[in-house]
Amino acid sequence: MSPSIVFTVSRLFLAAIWLFSLFPNFCIAWSIAPDCAVFPQISEAMTEALNLAIYAKLRAVNGPPRLGTSMVDLLAAPNEDDTDTLVFAGKWYQNVINAASVPSPGGIVIHCSDNHLTPIDLANRKYIDKERDNTVVFGPKVAGTKPTDNACGGVIKAFAYSAGGQQVILLCSDSVAGALKSSFSYPISNWRAEGNLKDYTPVVDKGLDALGMFLSTMILHELMHVASFVEQNKALQPAQFPAILPDKVQGEAIGEIYQYSPISGKKLGFSTSSGQSTANNLQHNADSFALLAASWYLPRYAWVNGKCATIGTPRQAPAVYPNTPTPPGPS
């Protein structure tokens, strides 16, 4: 190698170090905050959440026909192969992938503690993010529960917000209800090939809601909100996945709907719905999309009225579709 080339390479290397010193938070995609150091499962769970979105996007546009009642129950679709609903779902799963691919300073950062949020108005669950220019953040409110002084605590599992040019996902860890304390200790991918889910105690007891107990599904719920933030930053538009759903019910505004029975209006295993919300509300409901993606991610199974049923091999979707993209990785 000639001296001039060595000199040029050296200058480029020094320039890279200088740029990194100016922009230490620069990353190729999403990142994990230092307060997650004691939770080594975060990277795997985030990657799996993105794989859920990738698979769901492909499942929405590829055969074979979808079996069960997941899309009818979770999105109030006319049927499992309704083209308009599938196109809409595929679009938003792609938006999740796009949002997770944004580099810093506008990318996603995952926190595992709310210590960076300082309360300034507890009555209104109002905080400032000390790490992001003291941006005002509102903690979640859950009707019928007593809020805690900190942003997490109580029944809060996780939440997402936009601050300081970043999209923040906060996975709560300070109570037994927090996402990092209440989730299964293993990934949902374990359920793609092992045993028969119909015999698994969590599935027998909870049905489709068992899929919501995986950390990756909880993260995907928050990623739906993040995708909405990112799309709002591109153009002035209402949030696709807001905390308050667009259609009132009996004249009252309602918040997000969680879990199978409240979303579908059905008791587990029953075909009759006694109070499913509007299709418009459910297509703005993050948990609907997270649970739908999780249900599709297990191609050996269909979910009929929330209960698990097996699918014979000839009618199963492929475990991996051709040309499946690699999920965006961490910095």
Number of strands: 9
Topology as H/E string? HEHHHEEEEEEHHHHHHEE
Rg, rounded, reads 21 Å
Name the CATH superfamily classification.
Collagenase (Catalytic Domain)
Number of domains: 1
If you consult CATH, what is the topology?
A: Collagenase (Catalytic Domain)
Written overview of the protein:
This protein has 331 residues and is an alpha/beta fold. It has helices at residues 3-22, 42-61, 70-75, 83-100, 179-182, 201-206, 215-234, 260-264, 279-282, 286-296, and strands spanning 31-32, 108-111, 117-121, 126-129, 135-138, 158-163, 166-171, 301-304, 307-310. It has a single domain (27-315), classed as Collagenase (Catalytic Domain) (3-Layer(aba) Sandwich), CATH 3.40.390.10. The protein contains ten helices and nine strands. Keywords: Signal.
Features:
three-stranded antiparallel sheet; 10 helices; alpha/beta; 331 residues; Collagenase (Catalytic Domain); four-stranded mixed sheet; disordered N terminus
Task: Describe the secondary-structure layout.
Blueprint: H1 3-22, E1 31-32, H2 42-61, H3 70-75, H4 83-100, E2 108-111, E3 117-121, E4 126-129, E5 135-138, E6 158-163, E7 166-171, H5 179-182, H6 201-206, H7 215-234, H8 260-264, H9 279-282, H10 286-296, E8 301-304, E9 307-310
Parallel strand pairs: 1-2, 2-7
Antiparallel strand pairs: 3-4, 4-5, 6-7, 8-9
Compact summary:
This protein is of the alpha/beta class and 331 residues long.
